Amino acid sequence: MSAHRRFRGFSGLRSRLAAMLAAPLVLLGAVQAQAAITFDSGPVRPVAMSPDGRKLFAVNTPNHTLEVFNIGTTGALTLAARIPVGLEPVAVAARNNDEVWVVNHLSDSVSVVTLAGIPRVTRTLLVGDEPRDIVFAANGRAFITTAHRGQHRTDSSISSVPGAGDPQLTTPGVGRADVWVFDSASLGTTFGGTPLKIMTFFSDTPRALALSPDRNTVYVAAFKSGNQTTVVPGDYMCADFATTPCVRKGITVPGGQLGPATNYEGHRAPDVGLIVKFDNTRRRWLDAAGRDWTAAVGFNMPDLDVFSVDANALTQRSAIPHVGTTLFNMVTNPVTGKLYVSNNESMNHIRFEGSGAYGGSTVQGQIAKTRITVVNGTTATPRHLNKHIDYSKLAGQAGFDPTAKDHSLSTPLDMVVSRDGRTLYVAAFGSSKIGVFDTATLEADTFNPRTQSARYITVSGGGPSGLVLDETRNRLYVTTRFDNAVKVIDLATNREIAASSMPTPESSEVIAGRPMLYDANRTTGNGESACSSCHTFGGKDELAWDLGDPNGKVEKNPIPINLNPEIGTVTFKITHLNGTKAADDFHPMKGPMTTQTLQGLTNSGAMHWRGDRSNGFFGVDGYIGSADNNMKRAAYGDNEVLNFRNFIVALGGLLGKPTPASGPTPEDVDIMDKFTAFQLKVQLPPNPVRALNNQLNASQQRGRDIYFGPRNLDGSIRPFDGLPGLQPLADLRGTGRASFTCEGCHKIDSANGRFGTQGESNFEGETQIFKVPHLRDLYTKVGMFGTKELNTVRIPGAPFQGDQIRGFGFIHDGSFDTLFRFLNLFQFNDPLIQFDRMHRGTSSELTAFALMSTSFFQMGFPIDNSRAQSMQRDVEQFLLAIDTDLAPIVGQQVTYSRSTVLSAGARADLLKARAAANFTSKILGGTVKECDLVARAVSNGQPVSYLYQPATGNFTNASGAVVSDTTLRFNAITAGTEVTYTCAVPGTGVQLAFRN
Asked: For 230, which of 464, 807, 908, 976 could close a Cys bridge (C-beta 3.0–4.6 Å)?
């Protein structure tokens, strides 16, 4: 049925709706813009030009708008329109001169924008979680990258779409990179658009897309694709740093830890695991000394990074491995068809930070190498852009070249190639420069960075992120994220000749502090790496690093310890706990630890896996509830400020910033103060696994019930007052507690900002004392399956799992492949199971057994295996959907229009319902609503925005006029007056609706 015939009957509907309308006018008080929540989404394709070269389109990420500029004859830019889109737009592509598509990272949507008539959003396409890029193939199909998860993936409206459905987060061998494909000329009548297909690729979450010169081949790149490294658990190390092979768990391994066995003070190092890297020549897993650990690794890592797709058949043509660790952007040479991929190659197989004087190695100053990889067919050839750097010469040592940074490029993002295929431009986000290369010398690797840098273009403002080459006018348009602007470069002189600022609601602290995360010129010695080299766009790189420092001192741990192994006269047999055998020591050699996100750090206490920056340069503060913190909490909010500032030592010890022997400089302190003020305002996104109505499914709810108790699940000593001959357990250091539900350690208390941790440490049978971590982003760690047999796990090790996507999973070193395996740790199970694994005979073990015997069949997951596994599967499902600081509805959108009138109503009703539902969040100020609902429409020939008032069920505009939702939907039936609903972060609705 044609659209015309389908909607002819709406004249009667109009009459019925008109009779229902009663929109009284009320006057609102003065509207005040509210502070914005910061997410710092990474720019992907932030700028584009119309095919006719008359308009420039730039996404304004913090303002959630598309900026449209008219391009003058000399390249001058004049703002033509500012169009609200979804939350955190990161990419834009022009379908034609009058239609532009915008990818909204936080909203999980694509805004279809028309420039014909009144510039506005005509359709909102709903896609998978955290979309990043978009391209249009020659056949008009749109390709959009998303993570292999998200609420819309399983929505019944697209159940018949090939590739839709359950993302199978707990299933081995499933690709985690999705591309949603739409026919741009026929989007369907489902409320979120009907994709032709959802393609899945065997890699991690994707980011960039590119087109072949004929636009019939689409290239898809994984984002954090890994580098074929993984961890061998400590259970497989021979004892005492042995240099000869031994048999561990039936497997012959080549020795123990690499050492040194102590730090420079002589304190023994803890027993830890070991990072190994796959050698593609020998086809073996090797450590830094070349020893073969293949027998101890239970999977393969093919390291597939870039995929080519037939845009017509929608099939994968090829998979290209070994392109890079973190892949940012791609572009093809229009003449040769070769593909250029901007990327970082991480050096996490190199051990230790610091000087390397005692440990024998250091990764200082060489965290990640800046590269462009040239792909010709299926062959990837990396080119290091900073090959002039001598990594053996550290800052402050003889031979160090302080001028090296003048020739360096950091964090390469967007690229463009001249139409003759001879010149490539690359935006160096962390360098305030545009790299300029002859493609021939780049491909041949014959360029010299020290002379090549004379061609680099300096860009003011910092953070160049997007490029458009306008050869007709001999101009280069550059978006700069640090000052949120568009710059115009005259390519005749390589000089900036104009700038157009874009509005932002971000605070001055956020704007001033953002460069401290990314700016390699300011924070390093050689200008290549920055904090963002591991904490990619403030998140994590999905790798583990061994960043201990044998030249460091043993420090005291001020964090209270739950279930301290030093309990009165009862002592557990933990060999070399923390290396020193003291529970309250921080040993500087901590072993492999996965990168943690820098998002959502507020209200979580001491930082990193051990919380070991609770004792540092600026002071000591280990507990967010300590009495002496009252003044600081009033000024800053708990102790996160001190803990974050204490990472100042990483500027010199890890990034290689020249630091005098006397300690950090005033410049270093200024960097960390600004960095702290910025980063503690950056938040995590909503959980994409949790249902949009914020309700748990049956399995998740069962898991939550188990998580909260009343059954204690740690299977540890249960206080049993009055037991003859045993010391009462009321003197436990720190909290006075000896046994816990899951929630007892991993606290869930949204009113106080706790989402898995309340800042304490815990002893769980590990070789070190770890801080209890938050649990909000566990769903992002899926992709490694194949953990072998472990001493501390109830179930057997997994059989060989074959190809896997990533080499690191859960817990501090990433050695656990699944949450289910983690929940099978013996300490979470009935004590009788634990005792069955213990070596009987020592008095301490017998005493511990006597204590545990009071808890048989009362604590931990049950001894009945089938019942235990059922409970553990439910808890696993809850953990993947765990509560967060923001409701899952935040960011969600729908457009109600002539084409979606029969399908979009229910989704709009859902947004309204969630905007009326109470939600508690400390970062949002207490009890609020789940979202602020904004509606954007056209009225009397002008765009207008409305804010939903849950108390009345109506919407109001900036002048206080009231309109009912029925009116909005009634008007939306007419082409050109669509209404788009957006669930904004609570407290930001006024700013989002009435800023323009």
From this structure: 807
* Structure-block tokens of residue 131: 């979309």
Report which of 580, 646, 658, 664 is spatially closest to residue 261, judged by C-alpha positions: 580
Provide the residue count of the chain: 996
Which string of b and e fits 280-312 if b means at least 16 CB within 10 Å?
Answer: eeeebbbbbeebbbbbbbbbbbbbbbbbbbebe
**Residue 813 — left, alpha, or beta (φ > 0 → left; ψ -120 to 50 → alpha)?**
alpha
Tokens 């208390």 belong to 749
pTM of the prediction?
0.93
CA 114 to each of CA 246, 445, 837, 938, 976: distance values in angstroms, whole numbers, following the listed order? 68, 44, 67, 13, 10
pLDDT in tens, 681-693: 999 999 999 999 9
Q: Does 260 sit behind a cis peptide bond, omega within 30 degrees of 0 on the bond before it? A: yes
How big is the CA angle at 791 (ends 788 and 796), to the nearest 5 degrees? 45
- For 71, residues 6+ apart whose C-beta sits below 8 A from its C-beta are 49, 53, 54, 55, 56, 77, 470, 473
Answer whether 615's CB lies under 8 Å from 557's CB: yes
Tokens 């598509």 found at: 101
- Give me 554's structure tokens: 């043993």
Q: What is the DSSP letter of 526?
A: S
**CA dihedral sign of residues 870, 873, 875, 881:** negative
**Is 267 buried (19+), middle (13-18) or exposed (0-12) by CB count in 10 A?**
buried
Q: Is the model's pLDDT at 854 over the cut of 90?
A: no
Which is nearest to 186 in space by CA: 127, 123, 130?
A: 123
Q: What is the mean pLDDT of residues 639-651?
A: 93
Compute the half-sphere exposure of residue 442: CA atoms within 13 Å on the CB side of its CA: 27
Q: From CA 76, how far away is CA 674, in angstroms rounded? A: 34
Section 708-712 average pLDDT? 89
Q: Three-state SS across 295-361?
A: HHCCCECCCEEEEEEECCCCEEEEEEECCCCEEEEEEECCCCCCEEEEEEEECCCCCCCCCCCCCCC
Q: Where are the beta strands (DSSP E) in 473-554?
A: 475-480, 485-490, 495-501, 544-545
Q: What is d(CA 91, CA 86) in angstroms, rounded to the nearest whole number?
A: 11
Q: Within 10 A of 166 (CB to CB), how many other CB atoms are there?
A: 10
Closest to 967 in 3D by CA, of 957, 959, 958: 957
Query: Across the chain, how many H-helices and E-strands are there?
Result: 20, 54
Phi and psi, residue 757, nearest 5°: -145, 150
414: pLDDT strictly greater than 60: yes
- Using DSSP, state whether 995 is helix, strand or coil: coil
Environment class of 56 (CB within 10 Å of its CB; exposed 0-12, middle 13-18, buried 19+): buried
